[in-house]
Write a structure and sequence with these properties.
It is a single chain. The chain has 210 residues and is of the alpha/beta class. The chain folds into two domains: 139 residues, Rossmann fold; 51 residues. 40% of the residues lie in helices and 10% in strands. It contains eight helices and four strands, in the order E-H-E-H-H-E-H-E-H-H-H-H. A four-stranded parallel beta sheet has the order 1-4-3-2, with helices on both faces. Helix 3 runs parallel beside helix 4. It is elongated. It starts with a strand and ends in a 22-residue tail after the last helix. The relative contact order is 0.14.
Length: 210
């Protein structure tokens, strides 16, 4: 479970990790919304997404209000997968005990099934699942970019950092990926790179001036 406010890099981190999955692994990604706290809506969206990635197990669960039917069908349809990963992005919208209990039960009973949740704030799944399965929590502080990661991000975005630039960016806006990306986008724009100024909180403090 990755926790943190919007822009902390939860979704980006999970997406990067999924790109590194082995070919035999299978991932299903659901971006949650408020209406998905209803079991029937959650189950329908899950079934649709399973069908969208070409597994074909979702249609068999059409009309079922229990998301376990679609997930069980997915596990049965992909027996050779090393891991079957369900990602719930914006999972703070899903707090229905019936849904959460079903997901925890599937994790408990299927070693190949893994659940990843990106949430803002605390979530009831932690207390619900803590007694029966291992729950790994990634707090906001662990989502901060390190200086080497910031340098790598700048390279990917086509930004050349002079010595000390990465540290100045981090000191000005912190290591959260969203504001760091905004800084690098401004620097990539051209002449602004030599005089870009960013505040810790109000966009008034010098960051990369050299």
């Amino acid at each position: 479970m990755l926790t943190g406010a919007q822009g902390y890099g939860k979704t980006t981190l999970v997406a990067s990790w999924l790109e590194e999955l082995a070919d035999a692994d299978l991932a299903v990604w659901l971006t949650c919304s408020p209406d998905m706290d209803r079991s029937e809506v959650f189950a329908a969206r899950l079934a649709d997404e399973i069908d969208r990635i070409g597994i074909g197990a979702g249609s068999a669960a059409a009309g079922e209000a229990d998301p376990g039917y679609a997930l069980s069908g997915l596990l049965d349809a992909a027996p050779e997968a090393n891991r079957v990963v369900l990602v719930l992005d914006a999972a703070q919208w899903v707090r229905n005990p019936q849904i959460l209990t079903r997901l925890v039960t599937l994790v408990q009973r299927n070693r190949q099934f893994h659940l990843i949740m990106c949430v803002r704030g605390e979530h009831p799944l932690v207390s619900l699942a803590g007694a029966v399965v291992d729950v790994v929590r990634v707090p906001p502080a662990d989502l901060l970019l390190t200086l080497p990661e910031m340098v790598k991000l700048a390279e990917v975005m086509g930004v050349h950092l002079a010595p000390g630039d990465a540290e100045r960016v981090r000191n000005a806006v912190g290591g959260w990926i969203a504001p760091v990306r905004l800084v690098f986008e401004a620097m990539a724009a051209g002449p602004m790179a030599s005089r870009w100024r960013a505040p810790r909180s109000t966009c008034a403090r010098s960051c990369c001036q050299r």
